[in-house]
Amino acid sequence: xxxxxxxxxxxxxxxxxxxxxxxxxxxxxxxxxxxxxxxxxxxxxxxxxxxxxxxxxxxxxxxxxxxxxxxxxxxxxxxxxxxxxxxxxxxxxxxxxxxxxxxxxxxxxxxxxxxxxxxxxxxxxxxxxxxxxxxxxxxxxxxx
Amino acid sequence: xxxxxxxxxxxxxxxxxxxxxxxxxxxxxxxxxxxxxxxxxxxxxxxxxxxxxxxxxxxxxxxxxxxxxxxxxxxxxxxxxxxxxxxxxxxxxxxxxxxxxxxxxxxxxxxxxxxxxxxxxxxxxxxxxxxxxxxxxxxxxxxxxxxxxxxxxxxxxxxxxxxxxxxxxxxxxxxxxxxxxxxx
Lengths: 144, 184
Description:
Number of helices of chain A: 6
Radius of gyration of chain B: 19 Å
Order of helices and strands of chain B: HHHHHHHH
Helix content of chain A: over 70%
Order of helices and strands of chain A: HHHHHH
Low-confidence stretches of chain A: none
Number of strands of chain A: 0
CATH class of the largest domain in chain B: Mainly Alpha
Largest sheet of chain B: none
Low-confidence stretches of chain B: 86-100
Mean pLDDT of chain A: 77
Oligomer: heterodimer
Number of domains of chain B: 2
Distance between the termini of chain B: 66 Å
Number of strands of chain B: 0
Number of helices of chain B: 8
CATH architecture of the largest domain in chain B: Orthogonal Bundle
Helix content of chain B: over 70%
CATH topology of the largest domain in chain B: Arc Repressor Mutant, subunit A
Strand content of chain A: under 5%
């Protein structure tokens, strides 16, 4: 408290951006605490005002069209090519796994199957089927 | 999305915000257009993986900040000085009221230039948080999502960033006074 002026009230007024009366302003000029608070309030306001002011930007004419013209090739074609490559990759892995399973099954069952004609036919069919699947999954799908 | 016509619409809708944010984060200049193009190119490349679980604007903020950060990294490597005060931009004058006299206007312009220059000295995350909060009027929550930070950390960065700007401004004011005193 300095004279009739309450420092806390003046400082609060400055924090809230209320205009000071001539008497209050005179007090602030002569009071160290209020002067410091005044500077602080001014700095706060100045920083916020500067930050809130949006910089003026000039987007060049036809910028959007320029961006689109510079895009990589149409994404549809890219997607299709990526999908084909992905499928071929999986096809090859699946074919390899199936061949491994087929070979294992053949190794286990062939000795017993060779004793009968039906067994031999069955083994032949299974082997042909596996080979066909492998061909379909790998060669048929590996296209650029 | 993917059709160029649709994408052109997206660019048109967001181009001002992208230019504005890049200008604030990296300083005004001709480089902003190149950076903005990079932002939209990254957006386009990423659109195929965009599942719509995040808002497009949030995603665009993230890309814009990443592009600005890459620019900063590049500049640090090349040691390029940045001017944040575009003399042609004229935004400082816009803020000043018509009733202001030349001296006040000059003071305001200097203040804004000082704040803008000080922005360049903050950490990337502080700068991004301040620009998003004050310039783009994003909420704490939006900033937290874009910067992938907890809410309280965002608040801390904002507070710390403002304090640093204030400090810088105070130093500048003191420097000005000293100059005036020495001159007289």
